[in-house]
Amino acid sequence: QEEKENEQKRQEEESKKEKENSWKRMKIGFAVFGISAASLAAYAIYDFGSPERDENGNVIRDEFSDLPIVSQYYKRIWKSMTYYRKMIQEPSRDKLLPDPLKPPYVQPPYTLVLEMKDVLVHPDWTYQTGWRFKKRPGVDYFLEQCARNFEIVVFTADQGMTVFPILDALDPNGYIMYRLVRDATHFVDGHHVKNLDNLNRDLKKVIVIDWDPNSTKLHPQNSFNISRWNGNDDDTILFDLVAFLKTIVTAEIDDVREVLDYYKQFDNPLAQFRENQRKLLEQMQIKEREEQSKGKPVVKQWSPSFFKS
């Protein structure tokens, strides 16, 4: 009995010592963490709050140099924080595209801004291939046809390290003139938004093709939203888009926003476009037969009425 009591006491003492050691280790850990955090904070205050120095180590005066030392550090830190926040939320540059080409070079009459993911390609996974980006049906034809009359710009919120290799493989002929990625977007209310004001183009001639209204909410009048492609092989959206965009060029629309605004009232704008096209062709055929019956030459005219029923 006495041996059992001694063994129990020994175990209790060992357990007590282990708890004490654990608590000591925890306190040491907290102390190390606190010292590290304090050191890091002190270094950050010193680094962001100190005035800049020239190559010889001399202090460069700034707008805060005449303030009390505490105010100097506070103001400089706040300025740095504002700068980095702006760098995250706003585009990396004011002009996203270079100035339009001047004669004798030819500047396309319209600018076509395309989302990449789920408009041109779709991330796809299979056991055989793993992750890959699948091309939307008709994408090669779409780019080739649009490049004749449009300045094609891919503008996406994805990172450049992801986008550039995909576009290199997707567009070996170089139909896409410019590539804009996440650092060119505005971060607004949790969304990366494409601000066309920074595009350096006449917005009367800019069409944005996207599936996400949030990404173009600063300029909804320039957006033509299509259905998000989920990888199905029977998709024909890009073929329909070619016909729609060709008609804008043929009709020499002065302000594309009027046309885009008209089609916003329809749940399926491309289906409505096909219906308007069918009606117009019927009207042209009727007019052609009437002119032929009168013995007059037939003159076909394309106008903005092509867009309206």
What level of helicity do the residues show?
Answer: 40-55%
- Domain module tally: 2
What is the multimeric organization of the chains shown?
single chain
- Radius of gyration over alpha carbons? 32 Å
What is the averaged pLDDT score? 86
Region (Disordered): 1-20, 287-309
Subcellular location: Mitochondrion inner membrane
Membrane topology: Single-pass membrane protein
Keywords: Membrane, Mitochondrion, Mitochondrion inner membrane, Protein transport, Transit peptide, Translocation, Transmembrane, Transmembrane helix, Transport
Describe this structure in words.
This protein is of the alpha/beta class and 309 residues long. The chain folds into two domains: 1-89; 110-289, HAD superfamily/HAD-like (Rossmann fold). It is 44% helix and 14% strand. The chain has helices at 2-49, 69-89, 139-146, 160-170, 237-250, 256-263, 269-293; strands at residues 110-114, 121-126, 130-135, 150-155, 176-180, 186-188, 191-193, 206-210, 223-225. A five-stranded parallel sheet has the order 5-4-1-8-9. Strands 2-3 form a two-stranded antiparallel sheet. The longest helix is centred in the N-terminal third of the chain and has 48 residues, at 2-49. It is elongated, with a radius of gyration of 32 Å. The chain starts with a helix and ends in a 16-residue tail after the last helix. Essential component of the TIM23 complex, a complex that mediates the translocation of transit peptide-containing proteins across the mitochondrial inner membrane. This is Mitochondrial import inner membrane translocase subunit TIM50. Residues 105-248 form the FCP1 homology domain. It comes from Tabanus bromius (Band-eyed brown horse fly). Belongs to the TIM50 family.
